[in-house]
Amino acid sequence: MKLSRPVVWARAMSQNRRQDSEISRWLAIIAILLVLPGMAGLVLGVPWLVQPLPTFAPARASGALLLPLAAVGLLVKLSGHRRWAQLLAVLCGVMAIAGAWIALRGAEAPFDAMFMQRLGPEFVAGAGGLPVSVAVLFVFYSVALLLLASDRQSEHTLLMIGGLASLQVATAGVLFTAQLAGLVDGTTVQPLRAPLHSLLAALALGTALLDRVSRREQLSVAPPRWAPVLAGVSSGLVVMVLWQALMAREAVQLRARAAITAEAIDRAAQRQFRSIQRAVGRGAAYLTASRTDEDPMWSTSLPRLITETDGLRHILWLDSTGALLRSASPKVVPPDVLAALQAYVRRSTVRRDSMFTAHSTTLLAGPWRLALWLPVLSPFRGPTVLVGLIDEVEMIRLFTDDASGEFSLRVLAADTVLLQQGSEASAAMIFRAPLVLGARRLSVEVSERTGLARSPLPDVVLALGLVVSVLLALTLWLQRRNWQQALDEGQRFRAVFDTAFQVQLLLDHTGTVLEANRAAGELADRAPDALTGLTFWRAPWWDDDAVTGERVRDRFERALAGETQRFEVELGRGRDRALTMDFSLKPLLDSARRVTQVIVEGRDLTIRKRAEESLREISALTTMGRLAARVAHEINNPLAGIQNAFLLIRGAIPTDHQHYRFVGAIEREIARIAAVTRQLYETYRPDQTMVAESSVILAVSDAVSFLEQVNRGRQVRIVTDMSRAPTMVPVPDALLRQTLYNLVQNAMDVSPAHGTITVCAVQEEQECVLRVADEGPGIPPALLERIFDPFFSTKDRSMKTGGMGIGLALVRQSVLAVGGRIVVHGRPLGGTEFEVRLPMIPLDTGVLR
Asked: Where are the membrane-spanning stretches (predicted)?
């Protein structure tokens, strides 16, 4: 018989598993060997082993511990120890995240700092924990290894492993190439630099994961599932690195232009300052040689010099006491400036150190802080000084106007901004240079102006590169998709198997399973491919029952003889609930009317059986409820007459009568009977609406409010917790209210005075859980099995509200009728707790509505 294509693939994959393990094992060993040089360099203090190439980051002690741990985890997985591999994967991920956290906080890793101190101060600065890029790579790896070591590996899991491994290989490869070419230096991704050893080890381990995933896929010429992710991420990262390199190049060029601009401003300002020095110096020399202090230069040449010299504001002549002799300024000198000059002259006269020396000084007051100090030994005045006041802001402004087209400029004195060209919002500072004008210490900041046109090359490269990356990934994905579509066309038989709700198997003439659908795998609690090759009567769902297996084998022999066989069997061992399965064996005949194969179909009848039982429970519940309500109604009518007649008689009996004490006893008994009948009618009256859904919160609120009023004499407190209760449950409102009424009333009956009853409702997965707990004496263990029997009660018959023994029986029937369950257990501190679990999914009877 010709085997189907999936069987051939399964056998081919099993034959390649040895090669798969060997390749992955060698790659893990290579990863460990790659880390050894860095570890040796850290231990021996050899810098070139720690950092073989300057464009890569130095190796870290934390990375030297992380990488062997990651490789050992893969080796342990290949040896078959899944649990240990999962533990090592988790430990690897935790170490990677902790190292990155230390690095991001700027803290020092103890082991890194200890080893880096032996290598030199330039290595100590890098001892700040594991590089973020390496941490991300091994977080990808640890998650992929954890999935690879899981017990069940579905197609979705394999796809996730391939995607994570592709991200790891792509990121490590691009970082390795970019750092090797020096494209990372000076870019915004420079903090992501990683050690050479770590990147090579990450490449080896990621390749090992991809090798394992690719060999588990169906053999074909199509690209593996992770190929689009690897191609797209790799090309995208290459484009991003190239874009960052172009942006860094643009930034370097911009900084160079900014430096040239700042240098040009400095040269021009120095040249203008020296020009002012020479001009004022000529005036000082002329005064020294003059024979009169009323020289016409004060009214002609010096004012013209101030007007024609940019930056020169005033020229003043002061004697040795600071008195103003003459002024060539067209405007009045501010008083604070003159006072500052006079104070400086007096200090200089006292010190006698700068009175006769040409220099510049910085004033402490006035709008112009820079002053040229030139001594003049006048024949008429004696020692004097000629002072030139310079407006440095105006002088520098002449040379910043030309550069403000491309840059925003600021001139600062310490932190005070003296001049700003381009006042609009600008980008961050590009370059800063000192500007020294005599005694005045300034600085020039150059920033790029916003909105300025820049080179479009980086953005064009980024856009085109990302488009190419997307197209490359899309091309590989389309190729894979087209191949998958072709494969689906050739696997129609398999598709029919997998989409069927019932169990379907294809057996050969020996009873061996050739094909199994997804439902069969779910019934066996394993992958469908794991059933291939098993004998039908030894399948996992028979629970190793030899008797059942022989009977199933006998039915197979009959089917092999040409008879269609059908039988029901209950599967319950090792399951939460028993399953009722209906199996049919249908022979397949060839052209010669010989049986060659047998098709097995198995239908789950559990829901239908449960629905039939639920319908019977509901019918019984309805009958009992109607009977109870009718009994209550029939009792209530004569009881009303008795109560009215007694009220008339009670008034005629004097209080001193010898039997007057029986009046209260009769009244109490009538009240007790009335309470019991009212409870019976309110609890079990039929609900004509039978609403499909009911509100848990409203039902609990109504039951608690009513029962607190009825039992207010017992002084019992009811505490409710509806914070996690579902809004609606798919059960009839009457059944829910009857259940709550009985459970809370029972708790009232057994609670001591001033006791507390707790009622809570929570949603746990697909169930609504109601819990009613009391502080009563509890239920003896011997009676736990009987409390749900009809007409069995542990209450005192003298109690006014109970003792009938049908409340808990009806509660159990109500809960079972909607597919739920009820349990009772004692509380550690005393009392009893009833727990009702109602399904949040409506009970499906399988009937088409």
From this structure: 26-50, 56-75, 87-104, 124-149, 161-184, 196-214, 226-246
Residue 1 pLDDT more than 70? no
The CATH number of whichever domain residue 705 belongs to comes to 3.30.565.10
Distance CA 365, CA 512 (A): 106
3-state helix, strand, coil split of the chain in percent (to 5) is: 55, 20, 30
Q: Which helix (H) or strand (E) holds 426?
A: strand 426-437
Provide the domain limits for residue 270.
246-458
Q: How many CB atoms lie within 10 A of CB 263?
A: 13
CA–CA dist 501, 607 (Å, integer): 13
Residues 6+ apart with CB under 8 A from 458: 243, 246, 247, 250
| Residue 821, in any domain of the structure | yes
Q: Which helix (H) or strand (E) holds 513?
A: strand 513-516
pTM score of the predicted model: 0.42
Indicate the helix (H) or strand (E) that contains 599: strand 595-604
| Cα–Cα distance, 78 to 165 (Å, whole number) | 17
Query: What pLDDT digit, counting tens, does each position of 571-614 carry?
Result: 865 555 678 888 899 998 888 888 888 988 888 877 777 767 66
> Do both 314 and 432 map to the same domain?
yes
HSE-up (13 A, CA, CB side) for residue 76: 18
Total domain count, the chain: 4
The CATH number that applies at residue 568 is 3.30.450.20
Q: What is the DSSP letter of 2?
A: P
DSSP codes, 703-738: HHHHHHHHTGGG--EEEEE-TT--SEESS-HHHHHH
How far apart CA 24 and CA 208 sit, in angstroms, is 5
Among the ranges given (42-56, 578-592, 631-645), the one the predictor scored with the smallest mean pLDDT: 631-645
Domain edge (last residue) among 219, 236, 259: 219
Q: Tell me: the pLDDT tens digits for 252-267?
A: 778 888 888 888 888 8
